[in-house]
Design brief:
heterodimer, A: 339 residues, mainly alpha, two-stranded antiparallel ribbon, 73% helix, globular, B: 257 residues, alpha/beta, 2 domains, six-stranded mixed sheet, four-stranded antiparallel sheet, 10 helices
Amino acid sequence: MDRITAFSPRGWSMTVALSLLALLPIYVAVTGQTFYLDLASRLMILGMAAVSLNLILGNGGMISFGHAAYLGIGAYCVGIPAYYGIYDGLIQIPLAVACSALFALVTGAICLRTKGVYFIMITMAFTQMVFYGFVSMEEFGGDDGLVIDLRSQFAGLLDIEGATGLYYFILISLLAVLFLVYRITRSRFGMVIEGARANERRMQAIGYDTYRYRLVCYVIAGAICGYAGALLGNFTHFISPEMMDWTASGELIFMVVLGGTGTLFGPVLGAAAFVLLEEWLSTITIYWQFLFGALLIAVVLFWRGGINGFVDWAADQIPGRIITRTRDWIRRAPWRQRS
Amino acid sequence: MAPALLTVENLNKSFGGIAATDHVDLIVEAGEIHAVIGPNGAGKTTLVAQLSGELRPDGGEIKFVGQNITPLAAHARAHLGIARTFQITNLMLDMTVRDNVALAVQAYAGHSFRFWADARCEERLVEPAMAALARVGLADRAGSIARAMSHGEHRQLEIAIALATEPRLLLLDEPMAGMGVEEAQSMVAFLDGLKGEKTMLLVEHDMDAVFALADRITVLVHGKVIASGAPDEIRGDAAVRRAYLGDEGPLSNEESG
């Protein structure tokens, strides 16, 4: 992953996007269209989940077809305590992260013994097990799910009961996750993960026990997605096994590929495109998924870099040139010249 | 007497009914270049794979400085100081040349469960990586993506990666494979320069290179060692001549040239 600087196309275009996101509640407050706030909240939660999937799929080359399990586990870790009257977010959220990490550790230890299509199938199988596990739990609503009557409480320090409070909580979480993943991918650990994707045999020959590193990566991704799941439960006020249906895992892969695998912002862009297109296309036709499929095929065939690649390209055009010129002008500015 | 650096005793490996490694004994003394030659299909690469730990032998023992390493996986052997290069170039092609080598350095510079600091800014990784690249003459290509380099440069990079792990034993699997005459010559000169500093087990097809470099030569035919000794002994060995004359006879070329 390239270094991000203020002047790189990625750096400034993302600054613009994040500023717009930060200002969105003001727009909503003025116009009263709360619908946009919900849309953006959902988009950012799924974005976080996609970022975590991308860490194993894009950077690590581990194609998990069961990543929605962590969204479900995270959400149930909010819903089940709430069902018993425990609304403390400082219990719910760490519980969501810990349960997800534990599930990733146990299943990952088995899944990562396999490769290729077997890995895809076994990750999916584990998620199906969790899915049917929750379906069979009548106490928590079975396949009808469970309503969460109150969102997580933070001892009065933080209020996410309202849409705006939750929105900012999600936005800050997304930024934190992006920063965390950015640091991880550039760290020693990230280099090993990247190397193991590029050439596992070579990595073993130079002395890496690639299995251990991949397992830790798998656990980190699971934990992050579990966190996103906790937010999703809070956001929807509702949990159901449907959250971890195998199609939900497929949608996360869709977002990563659409946005650009192995890039930092790609998965968020992919999630954004997914949520917005779903919203827009479904108003046009009930066969919107057909158009979706066609779009994915087009991206895979003609624009491998995904939306992220497109944004980089577009940002590098006219606005990019203006920025580059400005940067060069600043660098050459008289007050910076040494005599 | 101190144990030899590498001792192979009675090593066996079969694929189906074919014995790829057939009761092989081999000793590599510290400091020497020990060449393994043999016609195509003699089991040379299979032998390297077993020495490096990628392939489990069916029977026999591999000892490194007296320690039995037969049950150890490839990464564990690498940590004991056995580095290998691959016959078919085996690199992280989408990463830069520097990253390829820095990863090799990193494997020996403490653990890699470090999640926060930027690895590319760690002097401890970058400096030895650049030194290894300078050594093979690739310093000016450090920023290139490995994929964009020529075949000869890939071979040099393979060596740089192996050197960066500071090995005690280098397993070189046909380092000259696919190289042009000039490139091969400079590789021979380079390996000659490493002689005495690094112990090497050299598997090679190029007989000129083998006879120029090796202190000792082991000849493998159909998985069996048919001769082992100093280059002059091998050159005069009747069984070796027979094996090679039945094949393409590069030894006779060597003698006339």
